[in-house]
Automatic annotation (TrEMBL):
Keywords: ATP-binding, Cell membrane, Membrane, Nucleotide-binding, Translocase, Transport. Residues 2-244 form the ABC transporter domain. This is Phosphonate ABC transporter ATP-binding protein. It comes from the Bacteria. The keyword Cell membrane applies. GO terms for molecular function: ATP binding. InterPro entries: AAA+_ATPase, ABC_transporter-like_ATP-bd, ABC_transporter-like_CS, ABC_transpr_PhnC, MetN_ABC_transporter-like, P-loop_NTPase. It comes from Roseomonas nitratireducens. The keyword Transport applies. It holds the Pfam family ABC_tran.
C-alpha cells in the first residue's frame, strides 16, 4: 500500500500542496483531478521524490520513501515509474533504445553508459512495444512518431522498469480524443495486471470512465475522495463553485488540450 501522510510543499509564500493524506491500496487506479494550480503535479512529483516535501511522509509497504537517499532513492524511482505529459523521450534515438532506457537503473554503471543491453532485455523491449502495437516502429527515431505513439513508447519504457506503481502526470493533455483513448486503454490494461496507477487528468469524463477512485484537489487540499459515480455535477459545483463544463474547459485550457467532452451525471 502507498500511504501519503500530511504531505505539504511550499514554494516561497505559496502553498502548493497542503497537508494531503491518502492511502492507495495495491492495484488501484486513482484519477487525480483539480483546476489549474491545484497541486496535482506537485503531489505526484513528491511521491516519486522528484520534489521533496516540506512536511509529511510518503510510505510504501513500510518503507519511508521521504527518507531515502542515494541508491535506495534510485531504486524507489525504478519501482515508482513516472510518465510525463511531454513524453520525455530522447527524440534523436530510435524507439527501441528509448524503451530500453527503462532498464538503466538495473544495470552496472559502465554498461549503462555504453547502452550495452542484453538479448533478453531487447526481447523485453520488443515485447512491450508489440503489446502497444508499436513493434514495427522499433528502429524509427522517436521524433517520427505521433504524440499518441510517443506516449505509448513512454508507457513501454516505464514497464521495463518493472514498477509496482506508475504515476502519470497529464499523460493525455496534448493528445486528440482518439489517441487519448488509446493511451488510457494502455494504462488501464497495465493496471489490470496489478500495477497501481495514479493519473492526473483534466477531463472528468475520462476519470470516470477509467478510474476506480477519484481524488479532487483544490488549493492543495483534498476536497473529494470517492468512487466516480459519487462525483456528480452537483458535487463539482459544491466543491469548485463552477459547473462541470466550466471546470473542464478551464483545466483543458491550462494544459493546452483539446476541448473536453462532457458526461454530467445528475
Amino acid at each position: 500500500m502507498l500511504q501519503i501522510e500530511g504531505l505539504t510543499r511550499r514554494f516561497g509564500a505559496k502553498i502548493a500542496v497542503d497537508g494531503v493524506s491518502l492511502a492507495v491500496p495495491a492495484g488501484q487506479m486513482v484519477g487525480v483531478i483539480g483546476r489549474s494550480g491545484a497541486g496535482k503535479s506537485t503531489m505526484l512529483r513528491m511521491v516519486n521524490r522528484l520534489t521533496d516535501p516540506c512536511e509529511g511522509r510518503v510510505r510504501f509497504e513500510g518503507t519511508d520513501v521521504t527518507a531515502l537517499r542515494g541508491r535506495a532513492l534510485r531504486d524507489w524511482r525504478m519501482r515508482c515509474a513516472m510518465i510525463f505529459q511531454q513524453f520525455n523521450l530522447v527524440q534523436r534515438l530510435d524507439v527501441l533504445t528509448n524503451v530500453l532506457v527503462g532498464r538503466l537503473n538495473r544495470r552496472p554503471l559502465m554498461t549503462s553508459l555504453l547502452r550495452m543491453f542484453t538479448a533478453e532485455e531487447r526481447a523485453m523491449a520488443l515485447a512491450a512495444l508489440d503489446r502497444f502495437d508499436l513493434a514495427e516502429t522499433a528502429l524509427q527515431r522517436a521524433d517520427t512518431l505521433s504524440g499518441g505513439q510517443q506516449q505509448r513508447v513512454a508507457i513501454a519504457r516505464a514497464l521495463l522498469q518493472e514498477p509496482r506503481i506508475i504515476l502519470a502526470d497529464e499523460p493525455i493533455a496534448s493528445l486528440d480524443p482518439r489517441n487519448s483513448r488509446t493511451v488510457m486503454d494502455a494504462l488501464r490494461g497495465v493496471n489490470r495486471e496489478g500495477i497501481t496507477v495514479l493519473v492526473n487528468l483534466h477531463d472528468l469524463a475520462t476519470a470516470r470512465d477509467y478510474c476506480d477512485r477519484i481524488v479532487a484537489l483544490n488549493a492543495g487540499r483534498i476536497v473529494f475522495d470517492g468512487p466516480p459515480a459519487a462525483l456528480t455535477a452537483a458535487r463539482i459545483r459544491e466543491v469548485y463553485g463552477v459547473t462541470e463544463e466550466e471546470f473542464a474547459e478551464e483545466a483543458a485550457a491550462a494544459v493546452g488540450a483539446p476541448p473536453p467532452r462532457h458526461a454530467v451525471p445528475a
